[in-house]
Amino acid sequence: MVTIKDIAKIAGVSPSTVSRSLNDYPNISKKTKEKIKKIAEDLGFEFNEAARNLNRKKTNTIGVIIPQFFDDMRGEIFFANLLGKLIREAQMEGYHVRIEYEIEKKYIRKMIQSRSVDGLLLMNPFISKEDVEFILEKNFPYIFLHYIPENFMNTSKINYVRTNQKKGGYLATKYLIEKGHRKILTLSGLSINYEFKERTEGYRKALKEAGIGEEYILDIDVTFESAKKAIKKNYKLLKELDAIFAQTDLMALGAIEALEEMSLNIPEDVSVIGFDNIQIGTYFKPRLTTIEQPLDKLAKIGIKNIIKLMKDDVKVRKFIEPKLVIRQSA
Amino acid sequence: MVTIKDIAKIAGVSPSTVSRSLNDYPNISKKTKEKIKKIAEDLGFEFNEAARNLNRKKTNTIGVIIPQFFDDMRGEIFFANLLGKLIREAQMEGYHVRIEYEIEKKYIRKMIQSRSVDGLLLMNPFISKEDVEFILEKNFPYIFLHYIPENFMNTSKINYVRTNQKKGGYLATKYLIEKGHRKILTLSGLSINYEFKERTEGYRKALKEAGIGEEYILDIDVTFESAKKAIKKNYKLLKELDAIFAQTDLMALGAIEALEEMSLNIPEDVSVIGFDNIQIGTYFKPRLTTIEQPLDKLAKIGIKNIIKLMKDDVKVRKFIEPKLVIRQSA
DNA sequence: CTGAAAGCGCTTACAG
DNA sequence: CTGAAAGCGCTTACAG
């Protein structure tokens, strides 16, 4: 492997000069700088990353902690290549990304103490209190991405970048109301995660604004199958309804399948709106109307801000606005 | 940050002894070893990664090069969380993974020369000849994962882990034949990538084995839309056919939508089989019969073998066997 | 069983 | 504009 020492020897200068030249320091004569760059180029020299990191006390890499359920069904489909987007954004800013599951209790601690990363994007809702407190106490640069652990929801001093879930629920419900629907069922997963509570809050807010008194909330598993089952089971209730707000697209698809098997037409008999905007919705018939959580923005804003935070110790509290995507199902 | 020097001072020993203790060298008295471990634990000590990497001349990380089209539609859907699987497998083996797009011409070279990674999993079919030759010449540990660049297809000295595409095409076609079909159309993407050529070879092999003379091959874009269009356009041809082997699931779904719009029933009038086994196929009606490319195996075998190769300089040439998944569409 | 010393490949304050 | 020297935090051959 070629080092700056090798180059120094060939060029007849000191290693310091080589370092300065290759790093484009100002106080180096054009002549030697060019000579040295030429030699480095010819030899295919690249700085040894470990040596640099050790000396500079930074790694130019952003740690990303992903949740265990990331490769479950829901994760797989919803997070469609979020990792790819994070990698791309980081690379565009000149950083690397170190994506990991938190495989042991003190894993995050370890990443920090070993100085493996310069900052942390935390995407795990189940991150332990101890871990978070450690990060806070060390004043280590971090941002909660997409999720906030529930016990920190109400703390004001937390950094985050996440979708405005309540707004999403509100948009979905308001759209249905504007279409003339009054009896609107929402399929939620209240017991699973607070984001469903927030979506439901949005649902309520829209109903209230429209002066609609009746709520229909079903708290179920957030899967295709359980949505399908729930719709079939509540056959009677359904007769009175005119629209469904499913709080994930997969639930929406399950609901639609149930409705079709009951010979109901969508959206003529019942309108259905989903949440997430997974790509599948594009291929299903009827094409799914839904609320988009813009993952590319999540990635871009997350990366940009953790980098800013690594430099300046600013506060980062950003909401990403969800978007109504109108297609055929509602 | 706490270092072994700090621990040494507290324990009243030399840094060497601390290093040896924490690394569990045999020739250290139980007593001091335990004492030192206790102190390290109390202080929350972790080895500085950069220092270790510099000294040991390795990083414990595997580089993964992903293709630019990774976040295109096809990539997004087909590669469903392949990255997550790679990360998980690597972590289970005690390694990190550095996933990157090849953003500039000599990026791979740079990763090698800067000693950022110990080995490379190459997943880009468009990797340049120069890059590959550089890797080969440096004798740097690498494996082609899933793809092999076309100009190296016929070289015998290449390391790879990939799905047996020909076998996949064969299995799909053979299944259709066994179901009694004779006039089988295949929707391929011959001009896009050699993997489609291989699937088509498999198709041909199965036909030949069954003594079927007629081939129906459509070379189109491998998208939902173009498959749909192709089917509609070839309406006449279709009247004679009894089955379709679409070489991606998305094409299968496009074909199905076209057939349904033409009031044909699946599988009664026309059987359709796909390729990939993307998750969407599970939710569509009719549920998609398809050929699975087992991505979890790809990840696991890829990671396991690059690690082996980093240690031993063995040859790695592994095919992953695709699997027939029978559901409803054929 | 333990320590002193050299070295991994850089960067940079200091001196000239 | 350039060099010698110290230091980043480890590991390990050598000596005892």
TrEMBL record, chains A, B:
This is LacI family DNA-binding transcriptional regulator. SUPFAM superfamilies: lambda repressor-like DNA-binding domains, Periplasmic binding protein-like I. Coiled coil: none annotated. It comes from Marinitoga aeolica. Gene3D superfamilies: 3.40.50.2300, lambda repressor-like DNA-binding domains. PROSITE patterns: HTH_LACI_2. The keyword Endoplasmic reticulum does not apply. Keywords: DNA-binding, Transcription, Transcription regulation. Residues 2-56 form the HTH lacI-type domain.
